Amino acid sequence: MAFAPDLLRRSDWFELVIEGVPGALLIADHERRIMLLNRNTEALFGYDRSELIGQPIDVLVPARYRDQHAQEVEAFMAAPSSRSMGAGRDLYGVRKDGREVPIEIGLNPIQTAAGPVTFASIIDITERRRAETVQQEMAALVESAEDAILTKSLDGTIRSWNPAAERLLGYRAEEMIGQPVTRLLPEDRQDEESMIIDRIKQGQRVAHFETIRRRNDGSLIDVSLTISPIRSRFGAVIGASKIMRDIGERRRRDEELRRRNAELQQINKELDDFVYTASHDLRSPLTGISSVTQWILDDDLSMTAESRSRLSLIQGRIERMQNLLTDIRDYARAGQFSAPSGTRMTAAQLIAEVASTIHIPPGFSVTCDPLLAHIAIVRTPLAQIFHNLIGNAIKHHDRDAGNVIVEAHSSGEWIRFWVVDDGPGVAEPYREEIFEMFKTLKSRDQVEGSGMGLAIVRKLVEKMGGQCGVDAAEGRGARFWFDWPKTVQWTEGTE
């Protein structure tokens, strides 16, 4: 510690006191030259004390404040008293590296044999300013928020109330601050406050709690609450902040959506029932027409070949119409499945059963990935899906021989099945279109079909919450895939 020899007598106790002061401290003479400083002053301003002893105190003051600082010190020296400089206004010190630091200064006069000197204690208020800025920003956010925001103590007493709370609940801030928050709760919801306070005391956050609150006019509103603990600087829970959002309009929209969905489901059910009944009833007259046509062909031996050809064409069209009605009936019935059901078996067994019911021309084969022997499923309606996909793979093949492979993979609660062929494949622009009703890539005169098979597949899969689609196979061909919920556990390695 360096002292001016004509000012103070060196003493160990005085040196210890100066160095032990927790803040920055310096002494300046009547000409405002620095005479003494402690290590905290060195740390605050970044100088070694040897660089500051004898220097004017203005070296620690930003240039733009030096005139003001000199006037303040002059006024102080004219009427010396203990006072604080910087409180309530911007006052800065400047470090050796040029960085400015917000400070407050406490000034005290000391009379010595050599004349008056000024004892200055300096406090770095950077963190305080930062906290004040954050507090001001938070206050501005709370004031401008669209959601009601209030704070309360642990006994449920309201401590703050923002403008949005006034708009939402109809109470002015002065009416509610100091009041119990239970004033907002309907009689049948009073127990909620105890539950919330108990969780807050444990330091827990209550998020998106949907409930009802009472407005000033007595009306009830649907709200969503998010309540968070407020902690002291030592971490103790001392209160709670509450964000309250009006969800009445959302509730009304949700209810309207549920009502419309219920109506739509009923309409769809009635439409499916109508389509099912109509397709069933229309088959009878078509069967009659087909029978009459066949009688004519059998009984009228004098008929020309051209007439017979025309009657045969009529029978072909009747058969096509019957198949179409069958597919439409199956499509309507597909919407009636609520869950997979029927015989329990492995996927490999199901594929073998389906293949036995499909006409597989010579040169074609249907094979299974070995893993299908370890997937347990139930028959309905998976059999119909595989019947359509495997049947299409063979029917739409462009060669005299080919192979269809069925694969599967487990992922979470779903099984993804693939039906892979080595046929012509499906061009990318048509990969979504072919799942629509009555859509085919070739005319019905080229390939017999109603265009309903893949539409039935999609309806069955989506009814179970899954998805389906088609990708290009490796090399050539198509990979039709669909996701199906697991009805039993995936039994890897066992049957």
Structure report:
The chain has four domains: 12-124, PAS domain (Beta-Lactamase, 2-Layer Sandwich); 130-246, Beta-Lactamase; 252-334, Helix Hairpins, CATH 1.10.287; 341-485, 2-Layer Sandwich (Heat Shock Protein 90), CATH 3.30.565.10. A hairpin with a 2-residue loop joins β5 and β6 (115-124). The model is unreliable at 1-8 and 488-495 (pLDDT under 50). Strands 1, 2, 3, 4, 5 and 6 form a six-stranded antiparallel beta sheet that branches. Strands 8-7-11-10-9 form a five-stranded antiparallel beta sheet, with helices on both faces. The protein is of the alpha+beta class. The longest helix is centred in the middle third of the chain and has 52 residues, at 248-299. The chain is built from 13 helices and 18 strands.
